[in-house]
Amino acid sequence: MDAAQAISLAANWIRSHGVDYPTDGLVADRFEAGWSVYAPVTVDESDPMAFLDMPVGRSVFLVGDSGRIEEVSSSVPPQQAQDRFTTQEIADAHAAGSDEAQFMAEFERAFQQAAAEHPPAASSFTVVDAPSDEARTAAEASRLLEPIAQRLAQLGPPGWERLSAEFAFTVSAEVAQLWFWSGDRSMPAPVPLSIGELVRHQRNVAARMPAGPWWRLLLTVTNHGVMTVEYDYGDQPFPDGQLLAAEHYRNDLAVHPRSHVPVWLAGYVAGPAAQGRDPQRAAAAAAADAAVGRTAVPVDGVPSLAEVWARWAALSAVYVGVRSEWGPRILPGHAWYESDRRSGSVLFVLPGERAVLSGGKWDSPLLEAAYNGGRPLPDLYSGAPAWVTDSVLNTRNRNGLLTFCLWWTDGRWHRGATDTSGELDVPLPPIRTPGETVRAMTSLTGPGTDPACAALLTAIGDRKASAHHVAALFARVPGADVGAAVNQLSLAGLLTA
After folding, report:
1. What is the pLDDT of residue 44?
2. Which residues contact 290 (CB under 8 A, 6 or more apart)?
3. DSSP 363-431
């Protein structure tokens, strides 16, 4: 099928369905499974208010190579609409082996052949499926975005080029933020309650879609009438200023139950009740464990406390020395690490040869099974001493996102009843072996510094680490902050000279 045929099919479909849409001057753009047919829109760029008269969500007609036609809104991102259409075309093609499908395909081929040989009484023949309830709901939700965009546009200053609006809604709380841009300059603008009511209505309609109501609605509109839309269902944590109090998400889930809630949001909703361990709760749990003889599980495969502390401090010295904003850090009494993959851990060293190492893995299968699979949360504290409390735990436990907890006592690591060995690799810095630590150090200090990095680890183990050992790490790093690196070892209590 070529562009002219696609345009002809679309024009006949528009007329036969009584759609209020021009049939003259249509254009067609090719995509994988067919053609996108639409009436181009022109803008009087000399009139800054011309945009207000433009329909933002105009119809676009997707014409498949099979002859199938689907009307979609231009407010739906074109690639998204085309991908969905292509998927349906492929599915229909697979189903074409049925007798009925073969008959209809043969009928259409015969019709097209006759049209080629003789002047047709009709310009085309098209089989059009009735839209599903899901498609009608999506179309209605998309249509409701148009008046929102137009009302927002009226709030802009003269000469604005694009607007960006972000709405974070639940059934009991709302946040709306609006900016207008001209070049690199931006200006915020308040969103009237009347627009908020339109957005709330649109969300209620969107709630009937399979994914449920969006948590955030993101709109970008240009002064040429081009709108892009994103429904945010919480695949990533919401930005500061758009994360509502946990109670509002609980209220929303009560009204709109979901089969799947992002783990981070499920933990946030659960709050401290899920994994919190204040001193009273810790003491009661320890007493209950002792009463029934419940004990902790010894852990193998994790280096000793001294080795973990030494390697963590050496890595921290390197990251600070090269002035990296990432990487592990030593702070008074504890070590801290957050990876660039939303996972992390902390190690608190306590008097009396005790320590607590805890953290969380962002995509933990344990939490996924608990929050979305009906399984219990991992048992992290069974057999834990009463001194394992919130004050020495990674703060993920306050949001139900802790995935491992180890405590050092009696010369070895222990854990609760759940095996969390698969949770350690990503949240911990590279400290599992000396070789792993040295490789991580040299990735920052440069080729040829392996001996200096290994020498520092050896000196720490022999209690002979000095500022000279630290300075040797940065021989190939111009502008290194050696003083800050030395201070990391000093804070760790590992600098002897």
Report:
1. 52
2. none
3. T-HHHHHHHHSSPPPP---TT--TT--GGGS-GGGGGT---EEEEEETTEEEE-SS--GGGSTTTS-S-
DSSP sequence for 148-167: HHHHHHTTSPTT--EEEEEE
pLDDT at 115: 38
What is the per-residue pLDDT for 131? 62
Nearest-angstrom CA–CA distance, 301 and 357: 14
Side-chain half-sphere exposure of 405, counting CA atoms within 13 A: 28
118 Cβ contact list (under 8 Å, min separation 6): none
| Domain hosting residue 465, numbered range | 277-491
Do β-strands 216-222 and 162-169 pair in parallel, antiparallel, or remain unpaired? antiparallel
pLDDT at 119: 42
472 φ/ψ sector (left φ>0, alpha ψ -120 to 50, else beta): alpha
Q: Is residue 167 part of a domain?
A: yes
Q: Which two tokens stand for residue 417?
A: 């009843």
Point out the domain boundary residue: 63, 95, 129.
129
Whole-number Cα distances in Å, 133 to 140, 209, 347, 398: 10, 9, 53, 41
- Per-residue burial over 362-382, b if 16 or more Cβ lie within 10 Å, else e, is bebebbeebbeeeeebbebbb
Which residues are CB-neighbours of 385 under 8 A, at least 6 positions away?
A: 286, 407, 409
Q: Give the pair of three-digit tokens for residue 299.
A: 């852990």
Q: Which portions of the chain are predicted below pLDDT 70? A: 41-57, 74-77, 91-131, 497
pLDDT, residue 13, reads: 86
Q: What is the pLDDT of residue 126?
A: 43
Nearest to 434 by CA among 471, 413, 408, 460: 460
- Give the DSSP H or E segment for 177: strand 174-182
Read off the CATH number of the domain in which 241 is found.
3.30.500.20
In order, the DSSP letters of 238-250 are PPTTS---HHHHH
Q: Give pairs for 86-95: CB < 8 Å, separation 24+.
A: 86/31, 86/32, 86/33, 89/33, 89/34, 89/64, 89/65, 90/33, 92/66, 92/68, 93/66
pLDDT at 56 (0 to 100)? 53
Residues 313 and 396 in one domain: yes
Q: Are residues 28 and 122 both part of a single domain?
A: yes
Which pLDDT score, from 0 to 100, does residue 129 have?
Answer: 53
* 193-196: long-range contacts, CB 8 A cutoff, minimum separation 24: 194/151, 195/148, 195/151, 195/152, 196/167
Beta bridge partners of 344: 338, 360
Counting Cα atoms < 13 Å in the Cβ hemisphere of 335 gives 32
Half-sphere exposure of 284 (CA within 13 A, CB side): 6
What element of type H or E holds 469?
helix 467-472
Is there a single domain that holds both residue 352 and residue 290? yes
The residue with tokens 């009696």 is 410
